[in-house]
Structure prediction request, 189 residues.
Amino acid sequence: MPSDSETGYVYTLSDPRTDEPRYVGATKRPNERYQKHISDPHSEDMAGWVKELSKRDMTPDMNIVQIDSLDSLAGAERRVLERVSEEHDVLNTKMNPSYPDLGPSVPVPRKSEGKSLNEYYNTSDNEEAILDVLSDGRATPQYLKEETGLNNQQVNYALNQLMAAGWVRKITTGLYEYIGDPREEATDL
Prediction:
């Protein structure tokens, strides 16, 4: 793990009403960056969305989806944005339509059932526990917590990491399913 001074964070800003990601970003200081999004949005689309939420006494939810070294942060952000923008209408593409078309900085992941599977992703023990449960069928975070003994934060972090890697997808609010594990494909050859 990189030291704190070398650590960067890839995050999403999600709509609290739907849990849908609306923006993908990267930063060294998540709390400061979040406050900047709220107090001084950097685009008209972002400002409109934040203002709409504010009228309902709401703010976007920030979710850290990946922690990486600063050297790898731009590529990590790009890969997360590519995955998220496949399924969600993110504001990044409205601000800069060419953004998702940037080439990847690592080999392109294989596709499985139309989803990108990052075969270079190394899972943690917590993520392995989540994969074990999801390999038996769809599950809610509460069920995953009960079956694995992990706490809410650990379950949510593991799910976000596995979604970013393309191994798990969110079916609807609070329901997740296993897409595939490229390690299994490699052993089947």
Q: What stands out?
A: The mean pLDDT is 78. The domain at 115-188 is CATH 1.10.10.10 (Arc Repressor Mutant, subunit A). The radius of gyration is 17 Å. Residues 106 and 177 are 26 Å apart (CA to CA).
